[in-house]
From TrEMBL:
Residues the entry annotates as binding K(+): N234, T253, V255, T258
Gene name in the database record: mnmE
Name of the protein described by the UniProt record: tRNA modification GTPase MnmE
Natural source organism: Lentilactobacillus senioris DSM 24302 = JCM 17472
Binding site for Mg(2+): S238, T259
Location of this chain's protein in the cell: Cytoplasm
Lineage: Bacteria, Bacillati, Bacillota, Bacilli, Lactobacillales
Similarity section: Belongs to the TRAFAC class TrmE-Era-EngA-EngB-Septin-like GTPase superfamily. TrmE GTPase family.
Entry EC number(s): 3.6.-.-
GO cellular component: cytosol
Broad class of enzyme this protein falls into: hydrolase
Length: 463
């Protein structure tokens, strides 16, 4: 068991870079309080109680100057985020003062934290498990209230709890198999053992399948639903997009580790985060769109989970409309008949025939009609009532977890196949154990150091 004494004292700025009302420098480790005390003038921090916030000044002892007026929070182990002593220095928000204080903290006994290292310590010190650590990151990056709920659910440990139960079940069976192997004098022990293994493999397989069903929605909640709005020039794409954005507030997020100009645009439609693809193509001047035309649309279509194909209902179908209908045939698609406030020229029956009659919505972007129906359809296509009503259920959102669950299921299949083909029980046992290991990687009960490095390096600094 690791104890806090295994680690040195780390520090980082935990608030976003740039100007703000306040910035927070977080220090964690055995020496956290001492480090802070060395650069602080005010009460004796070594003597203040835990979970107190203390007014004072940061002083540069070389020059004798006050660097900033601060509030210092002292939180003593073990009831802290990392289970170590934590000090947080709340200073005025300027980047210069904040950096200066961080430098002073670093030259007084702390080391610069790596991205995610505070959370990594929370994991290594046993406060949270791996899937909960990942939930911390999901929570930071959550795009809608619904994504946030799923992340909080995972942070509460509900996924971990479920996985641990499955592992315990498997372990019980493996123990029973051991006992049977040790007492082969009983009659029929081989048949009994096989039956036991098969039952458990099938039962756990079914439970994992249930989890994987949630994964499709989970991935959308976490990463957003890649969506493109396509159609000929002037059919009303920008107008529809503006409605979606204005009514539901566009969310523009930074992609971690990238520069500002690769912003992704998200729109929150009834809790479904739509990640808009190639909105540049929509915002372009009309003649440019015309020039780039169908080719650009094809690219957007290819990378979409959902395509909204907009047609102008006040004009007859054109060759280009038909081309776009063809190009989107294999996709999850909503056909939007826009400009229904004008006299209708489009042949509705023909459109129905061409698109298979499904998911057609009539709108007028000008009159703002049909937009509620459009949003309802989007939400309905990707989240049936089941998810809506069962927000406390576990939803698997993480690609790493999904991969492990699939591999765990493959091991279980190998168990059943092995039994079917009459493999000796001790060989079948190996596959069952393998499943147990794979599930353990989700919670971090079994893990490798490289996994931790890779996983926590995706975190932002100071978390
Ligand atoms: P885009 O080229 O597909 O992005 O189309 P825009 O959204 O830029 O719209 C082209 C023109 O059609 C603009 O003048 C809009 O005001 C107009 N328009 C868009 N939607 C409607 C609609 O539902 N009814 C009517 N009458 N005009 C619309
Ligand atoms: Zn436009």
């Amino acid at each position: 068991v690791l104890t806090t004494t295994d680690f040195d004292t780390i520090a980082a700025i935990s608030t976003p870079a740039g100007e703000g009302g306040i910035s927070i420098i977080r220090i964690s480790g055995d020496d956290a309080v001492d480090v802070a005390a060395r650069i602080y003038r005010g009460k004796n921090l070594a003597k203040v109680g835990t979970n107190t916030i203390n007014y004072g000044h940061i002083v540069d002892h070389d020059t004798g100057d006050d660097v900033d007026e601060v509030m210092v929070s002292v939180m003593r182990a073990p009831k802290t985020y990392t289970k170590e002593n934590i000090v947080e220095i709340n200073c005025h928000g300027g980047i210069v003062a904040t950096n200066k204080i961080l430098q002073m903290v670093l030259s007084n006994g702390a080391r610069m934290a790596e991205p995610g290292e505070f959370t990594k310590r929370a994991f290594l010190n046993g406060r949270i498990d791996l899937s909960q650590s990942e939930a911390v990151m999901d929570l930071i990056e959550a795009k809608t209230d619904r994504s946030m709920k799923v992340a909080i659910n995972q942070l509460d440990g509900n996924l971990s709890h479920l996985i641990r139960n499955l592992r315990q079940d498997i372990l019980d069976v493996l123990a029973q198999v051991e006992v049977n192997i040790d007492y082969p004098e009983y009659d029929d022990v081989e048949t009994m053992t096989s039956r036991l293994l098969r039952q458990k493999a099938e039962q756990v397989h079914a439970q994992i399948d249930q989890l994987l069903v949630t994964a499709k929605q989970g991935k959308i909640l976490r990463d957003g639903l890649a969506t493109s709005i396509i159609g000929r020039p002037n059919v009303g794409k920008s107008s529809l997009l503006n409605h979606l954005i204005h009514e539901d507030k566009a969310i523009v997020t930074d992609v971690p580790g990238t520069t500002r100009d690769v912003l992704e645009e998200y729109v929150n439609v009834r809790g479904v985060p739509l990640k808009l693809i190639d909105t540049a193509g929509i915002h372009d001047t009309e003649d440019k769109v015309e020039k780039i035309g169908v080719d650009r649309s094809r690219k957007a279509i290819d990378s979409s989970d959902l395509v909204m194909l907009v047609l102008n209902a006040s004009e007859p179908l054109t060759a280009e409309d038909r081309e776009l209908i063809d190009a989107t045939a294999g996709k999850q698609r909503i056909v939007v008949l826009n400009k229904t406030d004008l006299p209708q020229q489009i042949e509705l029956e023909e459109v129905k025939h061409l698109v298979g009659g499904k998911n057609i919505i009539s709108t007028s972007a000008i009159k703002a009609s049909g937009l509620q129906e459009l949003e309802e359809l989007i939400a309905h296509l990707f989240f049936n009532e089941g998810i809506e009503n069962s927000q406390n259920d576990v939803v698997v959102t993480n690609a790493r977890h999904i991969g492990l669950l699939n591999r765990a299921n493959a091991s279980l299949k190998a168990v059943v196949d092995g039994l079917d083909s009459g493999l000796p029980v001790d060989l079948v046992q190996i596959d069952m154990t393998n499943c147990w290991d794979l599930l353990g990687e989700i919670t971090g009960d079994s893990y490798q150091d490289e996994l931790l490095d890779q996983l926590f390096s995706q975190f932002c600094l100071g978390k």
